[in-house]
TrEMBL record, chains A, B:
Keyword Nucleus attached: no
Name of the protein in question: Transcriptional regulator, IclR family
Transport listed as a keyword: no
Key words of the record: DNA-binding, Transcription, Transcription regulation
Record organism: Xaviernesmea oryzae
Length: 266, 266
DNA sequence: CGCAATGTTTTATTCTGTGAAACATCGTTT
DNA sequence: AAACGATGTTTCACAGAATAAAACATTGCG
C-alpha cells in the first residue's frame, strides 16, 4: 500500500531530521551534517540558521560547529502527558545508576522496534554506551524482550513473522524458544539476559506500569558480564524492580499531570 | 536596517513556532492553534502531521488534541553544551523547591530580555505560576535584575535607553535609581525584590557562574510576600546562594561535558 | 433533528525552498 | 611563503512544493 496521502511537509521534516542528527552526534559542522543527511550544504546552512534563530540549535562561534540549543531543553520541561514518564524516571534513574555504577536505560516500544528514551552512563571505565533516541530490535536485549513479553499478542506474532537477526551467538532466534522466553519473563515479572544483543554485556530489566497496570516501559541495568556475579545479580535485580515500582507509583500518583495555568513570571 | 539577508526558511520557522505554542499551552486542537498563530487550519494540520510522524508531538486519539511528544524529551536529554546548565540545575532546583516549598526559577538573559529556562512549582496552594520558555523584562523581577546587573554595560545602557514599563507601583523605572539598584546587587552578590514585577510577590535571586567566573544565569526562590518574614529571608537567601554555588561548581567540574561515543544499546 | 464548530481533504496558484556553483576564509602542507 | 584543500557563506534561477481557500466529513450540542 503506497500511502496515497502524504501530508508531510518536506522542509519541516528535513529540519527535524537535522535535529535528530545533532542529537546523535553533537558538535557537527555544516559539511559533516550535509554529508550524513544527504543534503546540500546550502540547505543545511539555511536550516541551521532558522533553528539557531529560535535557539533550537546553538553554535560554537569559534569553531562554527552546532549542537542542540537550550530551547529544546525548555520544551523538554514542558512536555504533555508523554513527559510524565520521563519526569518520573529521571531522578530514579540517577539513583539507580549511583547505586549500581552501571548503565541505566529507559526503553519503550515504538511499533515493532524498541526505543531508548533516556540513559544514564555507568561509572566504570569499561562500559557499554547506549544512546537516547535509538531504535533497536524487540527480540534481543533485556528491556526490549521484556517489552515484547508484555506487548499485545499481535505484536509478538508480527515480530516473530519477520527474520530474527542474531546479534551474537547467544541471541535467541528460534521462534518456539523465544516464545518460551517471553513466557518466562511474564512469569518472573523481570528479565535478565546475557550476551544476547552485545557480546559481553548483561542486562537486568524490570517493567514500568501505568496506572491501569499496563506495561509501558522498561528500566534496565546493563554492564559488562565480567562484573556480573551471583551477588550483583541479586542486588541489581532488586534495585531494578524497586526503581520500576517507584516510577510506576509516581506515574499513578501524579496521574494526568499538572498543567498549571499561567499567571506571570518572576 | 532592514536586514538584507534572510536565510530563514519559513516552513521550518512556522513549525518551530507551533512547537513553542504547544509548549505554552498543551492540549490544543488544530483550530485553536491556527487562530493563535495566525495560520490556516490546513497548514497547522500538515505541520502537526509532520511533527507527529517523528514523535515531536503526540495527539490524544480521542480528543484530537495535540501536545509535545516524547521525542522532544529525548532530544532534551542529549543537548550540547547548552544542556550542561540544565543538567546541573535540575536536581538542585528540585532540592531547593523541597527545602523552601516555594517556586524556583532558573533564568538566563536572551538579548534584552530574560528567559525562563526551567521552573519548579512551589507546594503552597497560593502561589505564583511561572512558565519555562517565557521571555520577560530585564528591569524587573529578582532574577532578571540580577542578570542585568552582571550584564555587559552596553546591555544596561540599551535597556535603560528604552521605555521602562512599570508592572506595579513598586517597579523601579527611574534610571538613576535603577543604576543604584544594579550597583547594590553587584555589591551584595545577590538580589531580593518585593512587588516589583508581580504585586504580592517576592523573589530571592543568586548568580550562577560559569567556570571563568562570568554570570550566566540566576536561580531564584519566589513566592507570596505574605509568607516572607525576616527568618525566611535569611533561610531563602542562604538556600539560593548555596544552590547557585552548587550549580556553578557542577558546571566547572563537568567542564565541556561528556559526549560518549556510541557503541550499542541494551 | 438541525445547527455550529471542528477536523480532514482537495485543488490551483504562487512563492519559496532548493541545488549548483561561485566566493570567502580559514588552516595545513609542501 | 605560496598553493592547496577543506569548510562555511552567498548568490541565483527554476522547479516543485508550500500555501490559502473552499469543499467535505464528522462530531457534539442545542
Amino acid at each position: 500500500m503506497t500511502e496515497p496521502k502524504d501530508y508531510k511537509i518536506a522542509a519541516v521534516d528535513r529540519a527535524l531530521a537535522l535535529l535528530e542528527a545533532l542529537a546523535d552526534r553533537p558538535e557537527q559542522g555544516v559539511t559533516s551534517l550535509a554529508k550524513s543527511l544527504g543534503m546540500t550544504k546550502s540547505l543545511v546552512f539555511r536550516l541551521l540558521h532558522t533553528l539557531e534563530e529560535r535557539g533550537f540549535v546553538s553554535r560554537d562561534p569559534e569553531r562554527a560547529e552546532y549542537s542542540l540549543g537550550y530551547r529544546i531543553g525548555v520544551l523538554g520541561e514542558r512536555l504533555g502527558k508523554d513527559g510524565a514518564l520521563l519526569y518520573a524516571a529521571r531522578p530514579v534513574m540517577d539513583a539507580l545508576r549511583d547505586k549500581t555504577s552501571e548503565n541505566v536505560n529507559l526503553v519503550i516500544r515504538e511499533g515493532l522496534k524498541s526505543y531508548v528514551l533516556a540513559t544514564r552512563a555507568g561509572y566504570h571505565s569499561i562500559r557499554l554506551f547506549a544512546q537516547a533516541g535509538r531504535n533497536g530490535p524487540l527480540h534481543a536485549g533485556g528491556g526490549s524482550l521484556l517489552l515484547l513479553a508484555y506487548a499485545d499478542p499481535s505484536v509478538v506474532d508480527t515480530v516473530l513473522a519477520q527474520p530474527l537477526e542474531a546479534f551474537t551467538p547467544h541471541t535467541v532466534t528460534d521462534r518456539a524458544k523465544l516464545r518460551q522466553v517471553l513466557e518466562r519473563i511474564r512469569a518472573n515479572g523481570y528479565n535478565i539476559v546475557l550476551n544476547d544483543l552485545d557480546d559481553g554485556a548483561f542486562s537486568v530489566a524490570a517493567p514500568i506500569r501505568s496506572a491501569d497496570g499496563a506495561v509501558i516501559a522498561s528500566i534496565s541495568v546493563a554492564g559488562a558480564v565480567v562484573r556480573f556475579d551471583e551477588e550483583r545479580r541479586e542486588t541489581y535485580l532488586k534495585a531494578a524492580l524497586d526503581a520500576a515500582a517507584e516510577i510506576s507509583e509516581r506515574l499513578s500518583i501524579h496521574g494526568p499531570g499538572e498543567n498549571g495555568r499561567v499567571k506571570s513570571m518572576a
